[in-house]
Amino acid sequence: MNRTSPLPPSAASDEIDLFELFHAIWRQKKLVVGCTLLAGVLGAGYAFLAPKTYEVSSVLRPAAINELDALNRSEVYKLPPADALLKVGAQLDSYDARLGFFKDHEELFKAFKKPGQTLEQSFEAFNRNSVNLILPDPKKSDSLSSYIRLELQYPTDVDGVAILNGFVDYAIAAERQQVGADLKVIVNNRLSELKGKIDAARANYDTDKESKIAKLLEADRLKRAQLQDELSALRLQMKMERTNRLAELAEAISIAKSMGIRTPTTPSSMADSTRTGSSQVMRTEVNNQKIPLYFMGTEALEAERAALQQRTSDDFTNPRIAEIGKELQLLESNREVEVLRKRGNEDIFLQDVEPLRAEVARLRGLNIDMSNLKLVTIDRRAQEPLSPIKPKKPLVIALSLVGGLLLGLMIALIRYFVRSRTQAVPYTALGDRREDKDTPL
Fold this sequence. Notes:
By secondary structure, this protein is an alpha+beta fold. 60% of the residues lie in helices and 6% in strands. This is Chain length determinant protein.
């Protein structure tokens, strides 16, 4: 016959009695309080003994419009205040700028140098963990104006205020120097461009002047050649006319001799000489016919022939010869060419270069010294912090106490469940052994 021994109430059900659980924890209150106090002491020790970390920050805002007005009105370099702030921000975020400041001020970074590390490695640790650049969130429209915030975290033995303020000034000075260099390059390039245009205008003027002189001289040579040809033709013409006149005179002399005409006469006079009567008669002869040359008589004709034969030049007989001589004399020197060649300051005769010269004068008068240029406004410079940001003592101690309390509760619960399990196992094993004895073989 089977017999089952009754089990203890604690083994009869898997349900947890909260009151019993709380009572068990209360019986172990010393353990819980001990863990809490131990953790609090450890947390307090860490809070007071851990290395302190401080934080400083600096805020930059766009400069006033009037600060950049002179630069923007130069019409050479446009730099609105917002762009200037972004340029300075890029300089602050630049690895090269930070490394340059690190190298130039090694005395400020002695705490970051570790044995066995190069200068760049020490800087990398500082740059990665200590410096933080914060920009406004573009998705948020509640910001009244754009800004740049630079934060620096540093240990106790570091002058973080000097580092941050020095780096901000270094970055602004570097960007100011960069703007000055850019402006100088742009101005020099613009001056070179304008000089090239003026040189091109000067070369064009020289070409035009030489071309004009060549055209004038060519026209003079052509005119001189034409006048020489005309003079030669006129002289040939006059020589032929004199030859023809000599031939006419010889013929007329021959006729006059055959007719016995020695002195000039007319046909009517010759007719009256054959008549008798009173010679006290005055005659008027109207005749539209040309009287033959031989009526001039041999004396006049021979005298004219002798004069023509003795003539060495016929130039005086034609007024055109004198005109040609005058024109040839004028062509000996071209006054316009002489004036063109004797110009002293030829730049004043260049065309369309007045605006270029005015621009050159304006660019050379620009002040490219950017040493006093205010790119940004330092809204807040770094100042000595009142307290470290790490460790936060109240928070560390509070978290330690809470952690110690939770640890004590966990240990108390574990001990309670272990004891409960230990007490339940013997009763179950005893019942099993009794059942085995009562079972028939």
